[in-house]
Amino acid sequence: MRAYRGHLVHITGAPSLEQAGDHLVSAPDGVLVVDDDGVIAYSGEYVGMPWHIAPEEVVDHRPGFLLPGFVDTHIHYPQTFCTDSFGGGQLLDWLQRCIFPAEATLADAAVAQRTARAFCRRRIEVGTTTALVFGSAFPDAQDALFTESLAAGLRTISGRGIQTVGPQAAAPLLTSERAAIELSVQEINRWHGADAADPAEALVQVAVMPRFALSVTDHTLIALGELYDSVRGQGVYFHSHLSENFHEIAAVRAAFGVRDYLDTYDGRLGDSAAPTLLGPRSVLAHGVHCTGRELARMADTGTSIAHCPTSQQFLGSGTMPWRRTTASGVTVALGSDVGAGDEWLMARVLNDCFKVHISAPDGAGLSIPPAQLLFTATLAGARALDLADRVGNLDEGKEADFIVIDPQRQSLLPEQLDRAEDAGAMLFTLLLGLREPSIVEVFVRGRRLTAAEAA
Protein backbone atom coordinates (compact mmCIF):
# COMPACT_ATOMS: atom_id res chain seq x y z
CA MET A 1 0.00 0.00 0.00
CA ARG A 2 1.11 3.54 -0.75
CA ALA A 3 -0.76 6.70 0.24
CA TYR A 4 -0.85 10.06 -1.53
CA ARG A 5 -1.89 13.02 0.59
CA GLY A 6 -3.20 16.26 -0.87
CA HIS A 7 -6.31 18.26 -1.74
CA LEU A 8 -8.55 15.54 -3.13
CA VAL A 9 -10.99 16.69 -5.84
CA HIS A 10 -13.28 14.53 -7.96
CA ILE A 11 -16.89 13.73 -8.83
CA THR A 12 -17.86 10.72 -6.75
CA GLY A 13 -20.42 8.05 -7.52
CA ALA A 14 -22.34 7.78 -10.79
CA PRO A 15 -24.24 11.06 -11.17
CA SER A 16 -25.75 12.64 -14.24
CA LEU A 17 -24.27 15.86 -15.55
CA GLU A 18 -26.88 17.89 -13.67
CA GLN A 19 -26.08 16.07 -10.41
CA ALA A 20 -22.32 16.62 -10.64
CA GLY A 21 -22.34 19.54 -8.20
CA ASP A 22 -23.96 17.43 -5.50
CA HIS A 23 -21.28 14.77 -5.99
CA LEU A 24 -18.26 17.07 -5.90
CA VAL A 25 -15.66 15.94 -3.36
CA SER A 26 -13.23 18.62 -2.18
CA ALA A 27 -11.11 17.42 0.73
CA PRO A 28 -8.25 19.87 1.47
CA ASP A 29 -6.49 17.23 3.56
CA GLY A 30 -7.43 14.15 1.59
CA VAL A 31 -5.64 10.95 0.79
CA LEU A 32 -5.63 8.18 -1.79
CA VAL A 33 -4.41 4.78 -0.67
CA VAL A 34 -3.39 2.56 -3.57
CA ASP A 35 -2.79 -1.17 -3.23
CA ASP A 36 -0.21 -3.28 -5.03
CA ASP A 37 -2.65 -3.99 -7.87
CA GLY A 38 -3.06 -0.29 -8.58
CA VAL A 39 -6.57 -0.16 -7.12
CA ILE A 40 -7.79 2.56 -4.76
CA ALA A 41 -8.20 1.02 -1.30
CA TYR A 42 -9.26 4.24 0.42
CA SER A 43 -10.27 7.69 -0.81
CA GLY A 44 -11.29 10.50 1.49
CA GLU A 45 -10.24 12.63 4.44
CA TYR A 46 -6.81 11.79 5.80
CA VAL A 47 -8.13 11.72 9.35
CA GLY A 48 -10.76 9.19 8.31
CA MET A 49 -8.31 6.64 6.91
CA PRO A 50 -9.25 3.26 8.48
CA TRP A 51 -6.90 1.95 11.15
CA HIS A 52 -6.40 -1.38 9.37
CA ILE A 53 -4.91 0.34 6.30
CA ALA A 54 -1.22 0.68 6.97
CA PRO A 55 0.45 2.19 3.90
CA GLU A 56 4.14 1.54 3.60
CA GLU A 57 4.69 5.14 2.57
CA VAL A 58 2.74 8.39 2.69
CA VAL A 59 3.71 10.83 -0.06
CA ASP A 60 2.66 14.29 1.04
CA HIS A 61 1.72 16.55 -1.88
CA ARG A 62 0.04 19.27 0.17
CA PRO A 63 -0.90 21.98 -0.71
CA GLY A 64 -1.10 20.29 -4.09
CA PHE A 65 -4.16 18.64 -5.60
CA LEU A 66 -5.09 15.06 -6.47
CA LEU A 67 -7.48 14.84 -9.45
CA PRO A 68 -8.64 12.01 -11.71
CA GLY A 69 -6.61 11.57 -14.87
CA PHE A 70 -8.14 13.41 -17.81
CA VAL A 71 -10.10 11.45 -20.44
CA ASP A 72 -9.80 12.68 -24.04
CA THR A 73 -12.50 11.13 -26.21
CA HIS A 74 -11.26 12.49 -29.54
CA ILE A 75 -7.64 13.06 -30.53
CA HIS A 76 -5.73 12.36 -33.77
CA TYR A 77 -2.40 10.59 -33.41
CA PRO A 78 -1.28 11.24 -37.04
CA GLN A 79 -1.87 14.97 -36.45
CA THR A 80 0.56 15.22 -33.51
CA PHE A 81 2.59 17.90 -35.29
CA CYS A 82 -0.32 19.58 -37.09
CA THR A 83 -1.69 21.97 -34.46
CA ASP A 84 -2.10 25.50 -35.81
CA SER A 85 -1.69 24.40 -39.43
CA PHE A 86 -3.05 27.13 -41.70
CA GLY A 87 -5.40 25.64 -44.25
CA GLY A 88 -6.89 28.85 -45.57
CA GLY A 89 -10.44 27.65 -44.97
CA GLN A 90 -12.77 25.49 -42.93
CA LEU A 91 -12.87 21.72 -42.43
CA LEU A 92 -12.79 20.31 -45.96
CA ASP A 93 -10.18 22.81 -47.20
CA TRP A 94 -8.01 22.22 -44.12
CA LEU A 95 -8.12 18.46 -44.58
CA GLN A 96 -6.94 18.64 -48.18
CA ARG A 97 -4.27 21.31 -47.74
CA CYS A 98 -2.82 20.34 -44.36
CA ILE A 99 -3.97 17.05 -42.91
CA PHE A 100 -4.00 14.48 -45.70
CA PRO A 101 -0.42 15.34 -46.76
CA ALA A 102 0.78 15.31 -43.15
CA GLU A 103 -0.85 11.98 -42.36
CA ALA A 104 0.67 10.45 -45.49
CA THR A 105 4.16 10.88 -44.00
CA LEU A 106 3.42 8.13 -41.46
CA ALA A 107 3.88 5.61 -44.27
CA ASP A 108 7.54 5.96 -43.32
CA ALA A 109 8.05 3.63 -40.33
CA ALA A 110 10.69 5.89 -38.79
CA VAL A 111 8.38 8.91 -38.96
CA ALA A 112 5.57 6.85 -37.44
CA GLN A 113 7.81 5.71 -34.58
CA ARG A 114 8.87 9.27 -33.74
CA THR A 115 5.28 10.46 -33.95
CA ALA A 116 4.00 7.69 -31.67
CA ARG A 117 6.64 8.48 -29.05
CA ALA A 118 5.94 12.20 -29.19
CA PHE A 119 2.21 11.56 -28.97
CA CYS A 120 2.56 9.43 -25.84
CA ARG A 121 5.00 11.87 -24.27
CA ARG A 122 2.60 14.78 -24.74
CA ARG A 123 -0.28 12.81 -23.22
CA ILE A 124 1.75 12.16 -20.09
CA GLU A 125 2.89 15.77 -19.87
CA VAL A 126 -0.71 17.01 -19.84
CA GLY A 127 -2.20 14.26 -17.66
CA THR A 128 -4.37 12.54 -20.26
CA THR A 129 -4.40 9.01 -18.89
CA THR A 130 -7.17 7.66 -21.14
CA ALA A 131 -7.79 8.55 -24.77
CA LEU A 132 -9.89 7.49 -27.73
CA VAL A 133 -7.34 7.99 -30.48
CA PHE A 134 -8.08 8.39 -34.16
CA GLY A 135 -5.39 6.34 -35.81
CA SER A 136 -3.23 6.19 -38.91
CA ALA A 137 -4.13 4.57 -42.20
CA PHE A 138 -0.89 2.58 -42.07
CA PRO A 139 -0.70 -0.69 -40.08
CA ASP A 140 2.97 -0.18 -39.09
CA ALA A 141 2.10 3.24 -37.68
CA GLN A 142 -0.72 1.72 -35.64
CA ASP A 143 1.62 -0.96 -34.36
CA ALA A 144 3.97 1.81 -33.23
CA LEU A 145 1.15 3.62 -31.42
CA PHE A 146 -0.02 0.56 -29.49
CA THR A 147 3.54 -0.49 -28.68
CA GLU A 148 4.51 2.93 -27.38
CA SER A 149 1.27 3.28 -25.43
CA LEU A 150 1.88 0.02 -23.61
CA ALA A 151 5.51 0.92 -22.94
CA ALA A 152 4.41 4.26 -21.49
CA GLY A 153 1.58 2.70 -19.45
CA LEU A 154 -1.24 4.73 -21.01
CA ARG A 155 -4.84 3.68 -21.65
CA THR A 156 -5.39 3.87 -25.39
CA ILE A 157 -8.34 2.93 -27.59
CA SER A 158 -7.53 3.36 -31.27
CA GLY A 159 -8.23 2.10 -34.76
CA ARG A 160 -6.75 2.62 -38.19
CA GLY A 161 -8.24 5.56 -40.09
CA ILE A 162 -10.34 3.96 -42.82
CA GLN A 163 -10.61 5.73 -46.18
CA THR A 164 -11.67 4.08 -49.41
CA VAL A 165 -12.56 7.25 -51.36
CA GLY A 166 -11.38 10.81 -51.28
CA PRO A 167 -9.76 13.70 -53.12
CA GLN A 168 -6.32 13.49 -54.74
CA ALA A 169 -4.68 14.85 -51.60
CA ALA A 170 -5.89 11.77 -49.70
CA ALA A 171 -4.69 9.24 -52.31
CA PRO A 172 -1.81 7.85 -50.19
CA LEU A 173 -4.29 7.08 -47.39
CA LEU A 174 -6.82 5.16 -49.48
CA THR A 175 -7.30 1.40 -49.69
CA SER A 176 -9.80 -0.83 -51.41
CA GLU A 177 -12.90 -1.80 -49.48
CA ARG A 178 -11.61 -5.35 -49.16
CA ALA A 179 -8.28 -4.17 -47.74
CA ALA A 180 -10.05 -1.80 -45.36
CA ILE A 181 -12.00 -4.69 -43.84
CA GLU A 182 -9.05 -7.09 -43.80
CA LEU A 183 -6.69 -4.58 -42.16
CA SER A 184 -9.31 -3.71 -39.54
CA VAL A 185 -9.82 -7.39 -38.71
CA GLN A 186 -6.07 -7.89 -38.42
CA GLU A 187 -5.76 -4.91 -36.08
CA ILE A 188 -8.58 -6.18 -33.86
CA ASN A 189 -7.06 -9.66 -33.71
CA ARG A 190 -3.60 -8.34 -32.90
CA TRP A 191 -4.25 -5.48 -30.52
CA HIS A 192 -7.70 -5.58 -28.94
CA GLY A 193 -6.99 -6.38 -25.30
CA ALA A 194 -3.47 -7.47 -26.21
CA ASP A 195 -2.06 -6.83 -22.73
CA ALA A 196 -4.66 -8.81 -20.75
CA ALA A 197 -6.39 -12.17 -20.84
CA ASP A 198 -9.72 -10.33 -20.62
CA PRO A 199 -9.96 -7.40 -23.09
CA ALA A 200 -12.18 -5.57 -20.59
CA GLU A 201 -9.19 -5.34 -18.25
CA ALA A 202 -6.67 -4.23 -20.88
CA LEU A 203 -4.96 -0.88 -21.33
CA VAL A 204 -5.14 -1.06 -25.13
CA GLN A 205 -8.30 -1.73 -27.08
CA VAL A 206 -9.35 -1.30 -30.70
CA ALA A 207 -12.07 0.66 -32.50
CA VAL A 208 -13.49 0.52 -36.01
CA MET A 209 -12.79 4.01 -37.36
CA PRO A 210 -13.87 5.33 -40.77
CA ARG A 211 -12.63 8.92 -40.94
CA PHE A 212 -16.11 10.19 -41.71
CA ALA A 213 -18.95 9.26 -44.00
CA LEU A 214 -17.39 11.05 -46.98
CA SER A 215 -14.24 8.93 -46.71
CA VAL A 216 -16.08 5.71 -47.59
CA THR A 217 -18.87 4.48 -49.85
CA ASP A 218 -22.25 3.12 -48.86
CA HIS A 219 -20.94 -0.37 -49.65
CA THR A 220 -18.00 0.16 -47.28
CA LEU A 221 -20.30 1.40 -44.54
CA ILE A 222 -22.47 -1.70 -44.92
CA ALA A 223 -19.38 -3.92 -44.76
CA LEU A 224 -18.13 -2.06 -41.68
CA GLY A 225 -21.54 -2.52 -40.07
CA GLU A 226 -21.32 -6.26 -40.69
CA LEU A 227 -17.78 -6.34 -39.31
CA TYR A 228 -18.75 -4.38 -36.22
CA ASP A 229 -21.76 -6.58 -35.66
CA SER A 230 -19.42 -9.58 -35.51
CA VAL A 231 -16.97 -8.03 -33.01
CA ARG A 232 -19.25 -5.86 -30.88
CA GLY A 233 -19.51 -8.65 -28.31
CA GLN A 234 -15.72 -8.55 -27.84
CA GLY A 235 -15.95 -4.95 -26.62
CA VAL A 236 -14.60 -3.37 -29.80
CA TYR A 237 -15.44 0.32 -30.17
CA PHE A 238 -16.76 2.43 -33.05
CA HIS A 239 -15.57 5.99 -33.58
CA SER A 240 -15.99 8.57 -36.33
CA HIS A 241 -17.04 12.16 -37.00
CA LEU A 242 -20.56 13.57 -37.17
CA SER A 243 -22.12 16.88 -38.23
CA GLU A 244 -19.07 19.06 -37.69
CA ASN A 245 -19.54 21.49 -40.56
CA PHE A 246 -22.49 22.68 -42.67
CA HIS A 247 -20.70 21.97 -45.96
CA GLU A 248 -19.79 18.48 -44.73
CA ILE A 249 -23.42 17.75 -43.77
CA ALA A 250 -24.71 18.92 -47.15
CA ALA A 251 -22.13 16.79 -48.95
CA VAL A 252 -23.08 13.70 -46.91
CA ARG A 253 -26.77 14.14 -47.64
CA ALA A 254 -26.08 14.57 -51.34
CA ALA A 255 -23.66 11.65 -51.56
CA PHE A 256 -25.77 9.12 -49.67
CA GLY A 257 -29.32 10.37 -50.18
CA VAL A 258 -29.99 10.23 -46.44
CA ARG A 259 -32.28 12.39 -44.34
CA ASP A 260 -29.72 12.85 -41.54
CA TYR A 261 -25.95 12.43 -41.37
CA LEU A 262 -26.37 9.90 -38.56
CA ASP A 263 -28.26 7.59 -40.92
CA THR A 264 -24.97 6.69 -42.63
CA TYR A 265 -23.74 5.08 -39.38
CA ASP A 266 -27.13 3.62 -38.51
CA GLY A 267 -27.47 1.23 -41.45
CA ARG A 268 -30.03 3.44 -43.17
CA LEU A 269 -28.50 3.42 -46.65
CA GLY A 270 -31.00 3.11 -49.47
CA ASP A 271 -32.91 -0.17 -49.38
CA SER A 272 -30.18 -1.98 -47.49
CA ALA A 273 -30.88 -3.43 -44.07
CA ALA A 274 -27.35 -2.99 -42.73
CA PRO A 275 -26.37 -3.44 -39.09
CA THR A 276 -26.07 -0.25 -37.11
CA LEU A 277 -22.70 1.09 -35.96
CA LEU A 278 -24.32 2.87 -33.01
CA GLY A 279 -24.28 1.63 -29.43
CA PRO A 280 -22.81 2.00 -25.92
CA ARG A 281 -19.21 1.84 -27.19
CA SER A 282 -19.81 4.17 -30.13
CA VAL A 283 -18.49 7.73 -29.84
CA LEU A 284 -19.06 10.36 -32.51
CA ALA A 285 -16.93 13.48 -32.53
CA HIS A 286 -18.41 16.98 -32.70
CA GLY A 287 -22.18 16.69 -33.21
CA VAL A 288 -22.30 20.46 -33.61
CA HIS A 289 -25.34 20.60 -35.88
CA CYS A 290 -27.38 17.51 -34.96
CA THR A 291 -31.10 17.34 -35.59
CA GLY A 292 -33.52 16.38 -32.86
CA ARG A 293 -33.99 13.00 -34.54
CA GLU A 294 -30.25 12.35 -34.44
CA LEU A 295 -29.94 13.24 -30.77
CA ALA A 296 -32.92 11.04 -29.86
CA ARG A 297 -31.46 8.10 -31.77
CA MET A 298 -28.05 8.50 -30.12
CA ALA A 299 -29.69 8.64 -26.70
CA ASP A 300 -31.76 5.54 -27.44
CA THR A 301 -28.70 3.54 -28.55
CA GLY A 302 -26.30 4.79 -25.86
CA THR A 303 -24.08 6.49 -28.45
CA SER A 304 -21.99 9.35 -27.06
CA ILE A 305 -20.67 12.66 -28.39
CA ALA A 306 -17.07 13.83 -28.06
CA HIS A 307 -17.43 17.59 -27.71
CA CYS A 308 -14.46 19.49 -29.17
CA PRO A 309 -14.94 23.22 -28.53
CA THR A 310 -11.33 24.21 -29.25
CA SER A 311 -11.19 22.75 -32.74
CA GLN A 312 -14.68 23.99 -33.52
CA GLN A 313 -13.40 27.52 -32.98
CA PHE A 314 -10.26 26.92 -35.02
CA LEU A 315 -12.20 25.62 -38.02
CA GLY A 316 -15.18 27.96 -37.67
CA SER A 317 -17.53 25.01 -37.32
CA GLY A 318 -19.95 26.69 -34.92
CA THR A 319 -20.95 25.97 -31.34
CA MET A 320 -22.59 22.75 -30.23
CA PRO A 321 -25.84 23.73 -28.43
CA TRP A 322 -24.94 22.61 -24.91
CA ARG A 323 -28.38 22.84 -23.28
CA ARG A 324 -30.19 21.09 -26.13
CA THR A 325 -27.58 18.37 -26.59
CA THR A 326 -27.14 17.44 -22.94
CA ALA A 327 -30.91 17.60 -22.33
CA SER A 328 -31.39 14.94 -25.02
CA GLY A 329 -29.88 12.29 -22.76
CA VAL A 330 -26.75 11.81 -24.84
CA THR A 331 -23.51 11.52 -22.86
CA VAL A 332 -21.34 14.49 -23.80
CA ALA A 333 -17.65 14.03 -23.05
CA LEU A 334 -14.67 16.19 -23.94
CA GLY A 335 -12.23 15.89 -26.83
CA SER A 336 -9.13 17.93 -27.63
CA ASP A 337 -9.29 17.06 -31.35
CA VAL A 338 -5.57 17.61 -31.75
CA GLY A 339 -4.60 18.72 -34.45
CA ALA A 340 -7.50 21.06 -35.35
CA GLY A 341 -7.55 21.56 -31.61
CA ASP A 342 -4.36 23.31 -30.59
CA GLU A 343 -4.63 22.50 -26.87
CA TRP A 344 -3.39 19.16 -25.53
CA LEU A 345 -4.21 19.96 -21.90
CA MET A 346 -7.85 19.10 -21.22
CA ALA A 347 -8.15 21.91 -18.71
CA ARG A 348 -7.41 24.33 -21.55
CA VAL A 349 -10.13 22.65 -23.62
CA LEU A 350 -12.47 23.13 -20.65
CA ASN A 351 -11.45 26.79 -20.64
CA ASP A 352 -12.62 27.04 -24.25
CA CYS A 353 -15.73 25.02 -23.43
CA PHE A 354 -16.79 27.49 -20.77
CA LYS A 355 -16.13 30.51 -22.97
CA VAL A 356 -17.89 29.31 -26.11
CA HIS A 357 -21.02 28.29 -24.25
CA ILE A 358 -21.37 31.40 -22.15
CA SER A 359 -21.18 33.30 -25.46
CA ALA A 360 -23.62 31.09 -27.38
CA PRO A 361 -26.05 33.15 -29.48
CA ASP A 362 -29.84 33.36 -29.54
CA GLY A 363 -30.36 33.01 -25.81
CA ALA A 364 -28.54 29.68 -25.62
CA GLY A 365 -25.65 30.96 -23.54
CA LEU A 366 -25.01 29.56 -20.07
CA SER A 367 -22.31 29.52 -17.42
CA ILE A 368 -21.37 25.85 -17.05
CA PRO A 369 -20.83 25.10 -13.33
CA PRO A 370 -17.29 24.02 -12.39
CA ALA A 371 -18.34 20.55 -11.19
CA GLN A 372 -19.96 19.92 -14.57
CA LEU A 373 -16.78 21.00 -16.31
CA LEU A 374 -14.71 18.53 -14.28
CA PHE A 375 -17.33 15.83 -14.90
CA THR A 376 -17.13 16.38 -18.66
CA ALA A 377 -13.34 15.89 -18.74
CA THR A 378 -13.26 12.86 -16.44
CA LEU A 379 -16.29 10.78 -15.50
CA ALA A 380 -18.32 11.58 -18.63
CA GLY A 381 -15.38 10.47 -20.75
CA ALA A 382 -15.08 7.23 -18.83
CA ARG A 383 -18.83 6.70 -19.26
CA ALA A 384 -18.67 7.36 -23.00
CA LEU A 385 -15.90 4.75 -23.25
CA ASP A 386 -17.79 2.24 -21.11
CA LEU A 387 -14.99 2.41 -18.52
CA ALA A 388 -16.79 4.15 -15.67
CA ASP A 389 -16.60 1.02 -13.54
CA ARG A 390 -12.80 1.29 -13.69
CA VAL A 391 -11.79 4.95 -14.04
CA GLY A 392 -13.18 8.48 -14.22
CA ASN A 393 -13.17 9.36 -10.54
CA LEU A 394 -11.24 8.47 -7.39
CA ASP A 395 -13.75 6.23 -5.64
CA GLU A 396 -12.61 3.21 -3.68
CA GLY A 397 -12.37 0.15 -5.91
CA LYS A 398 -11.51 2.13 -9.03
CA GLU A 399 -8.14 1.78 -10.70
CA ALA A 400 -5.77 4.52 -9.54
CA ASP A 401 -5.56 6.83 -12.55
CA PHE A 402 -4.83 10.27 -11.13
CA ILE A 403 -2.71 13.37 -11.52
CA VAL A 404 -0.89 15.50 -8.98
CA ILE A 405 -1.11 19.27 -9.45
CA ASP A 406 1.31 21.65 -7.75
CA PRO A 407 -0.08 25.20 -8.13
CA GLN A 408 3.18 26.59 -6.79
CA ARG A 409 4.67 25.93 -10.23
CA GLN A 410 2.58 28.78 -11.64
CA SER A 411 2.84 32.46 -10.87
CA LEU A 412 -0.31 33.90 -9.23
CA LEU A 413 -2.27 30.64 -9.20
CA PRO A 414 -1.73 29.90 -5.46
CA GLU A 415 -2.92 33.38 -4.53
CA GLN A 416 -5.93 33.06 -6.81
CA LEU A 417 -6.86 29.73 -5.23
CA ASP A 418 -6.53 31.21 -1.76
CA ARG A 419 -9.08 33.88 -2.67
CA ALA A 420 -11.73 31.32 -3.66
CA GLU A 421 -14.73 31.53 -1.32
CA ASP A 422 -15.94 27.94 -1.66
CA ALA A 423 -15.12 24.59 -3.28
CA GLY A 424 -16.88 25.46 -6.53
CA ALA A 425 -15.03 28.74 -6.96
CA MET A 426 -11.74 27.01 -6.12
CA LEU A 427 -12.37 24.30 -8.72
CA PHE A 428 -13.27 26.86 -11.37
CA THR A 429 -10.05 28.77 -10.72
CA LEU A 430 -8.01 25.58 -10.78
CA LEU A 431 -9.49 24.24 -14.02
CA LEU A 432 -9.47 27.46 -16.01
CA GLY A 433 -6.14 28.63 -14.64
CA LEU A 434 -4.25 25.34 -14.87
CA ARG A 435 -1.23 25.20 -17.13
CA GLU A 436 1.06 22.32 -17.98
CA PRO A 437 3.95 23.12 -15.56
CA SER A 438 1.69 22.46 -12.57
CA ILE A 439 1.05 18.83 -13.56
CA VAL A 440 3.92 17.21 -11.70
CA GLU A 441 2.96 13.53 -11.51
CA VAL A 442 0.72 11.23 -13.55
CA PHE A 443 -0.43 7.76 -12.52
CA VAL A 444 -2.21 4.91 -14.30
CA ARG A 445 -3.16 1.90 -12.19
CA GLY A 446 -0.99 3.32 -9.45
CA ARG A 447 2.10 3.32 -11.66
CA ARG A 448 3.84 6.66 -12.00
CA LEU A 449 4.33 7.55 -15.65
CA THR A 450 7.18 9.71 -16.87
CA ALA A 451 7.44 11.62 -20.11
CA ALA A 452 11.11 10.66 -20.28
CA GLU A 453 10.15 7.00 -20.71
CA ALA A 454 8.00 7.95 -23.70
CA ALA A 455 10.71 10.16 -25.25
From TrEMBL:
GO terms for biological process: guanine catabolic process. GO terms for cellular component: cytosol. Its cofactor is Zn(2+). The keyword Zinc applies. Residues 65-446 form the Amidohydrolase-related domain. Coiled coil: none annotated. SUPFAM superfamilies: Composite domain of metallo-dependent hydrolases (SSF51338), Metallo-dependent hydrolases (SSF51556). GO terms for molecular function: guanine deaminase activity; zinc ion binding. It comes from the Bacteria. Gene3D superfamilies: Metal-dependent hydrolases, Urease, subunit C, domain 1. Keywords: Hydrolase, Metal-binding, Zinc. The keyword Cell membrane does not apply. This is Guanine deaminase. The lineage of its organism: Bacteria, Bacillati, Actinomycetota, Actinomycetes, Mycobacteriales.
